[in-house]
Automatic annotation (TrEMBL):
PANTHER family in the cross-refs: SERINE/THREONINE-PROTEIN KINASE
Alphabetic keyword roster: ATP-binding, Kinase, Nucleotide-binding, Serine/threonine-protein kinase, Transferase
Molecular function in Gene Ontology: ATP binding; protein serine/threonine kinase activity
InterPro entries: CDPK_Ser/Thr_kinases, Kinase-like_dom_sf, Prot_kinase_dom, Ser/Thr_kinase_AS
Protein kinase domain boundaries: 1-270
Protein name from the UniProt record: Protein kinase domain-containing protein
Amino acid sequence: MVVPIIRSSLRARITDVAYAIKSIRKDDPNFVARDLMREIEMLRVAGGHGGIIRLFDVYEDDTHVHLVTDLCEGGELFDRVIARRGGSSSSSRGDDDDDECVDVPCLTEGEAARILGQILDALSHMHGLGIAHRDVKPENVMFATTDDDSPVRLIDLGLSRGHDGASEGPMSRVVGTPYYIAPEVLRGKYDKSCDLWSVGVVAYVLLCGYPPFNGDTTRRTYESVLRGRCDFHAEDWKNIGVDAMDFVRKLLDIDPGRRMTARQALTILG
């Protein structure tokens, strides 16, 4: 279940700096204080990186807890790529059982590489701190400004978790978004490499326009993910270079042990 969130903004009178406010109702039946405290802790630990949204303050009133963060004025990656191609931002995001998978407009290889490089750099920082994001998707990548070449920031660390693979067992809680979730997460035994699978799905979407694993219900999408067969249909990939396809394949390796790390993927992007 999802906790309803109110998003707004404010501008400081003295500094004239604008901030975003994420407000969570405390009386919502799905609200779990422990999960919110973990998100706050993850933001405080990882937020020193320019590619991750920063947390400036936390306060509460009788009804809500409010998180004050960077204001990303350029909107979501999901919405921007749709708007650029004249599509509709109301198309399916794959969160509900009855959602249909709707094609998303593509970016050029250069544009995709610039965005993916920033996502990977942010994840490399998080992974170096022993933190797995666990919900990497275009909706959780925000443009800092409205400029075409705006930097991007990774947001929503609500499902993030500290995990030291050297001293503790694999994570087991099934979390994430159906189209972008890694197969090992569905099997209940995974580590931070699940984030690289999600980046691979994002890369696939940006380059060809639709996710590699999908279905007309969440269950069927999960079945597609678990099969792990990533096809590069000739008609949709005819203008994409072999190196780009190989990059996606290495991220979407069904074996987490063979999958690239964030740092290795960054090296390939140069």
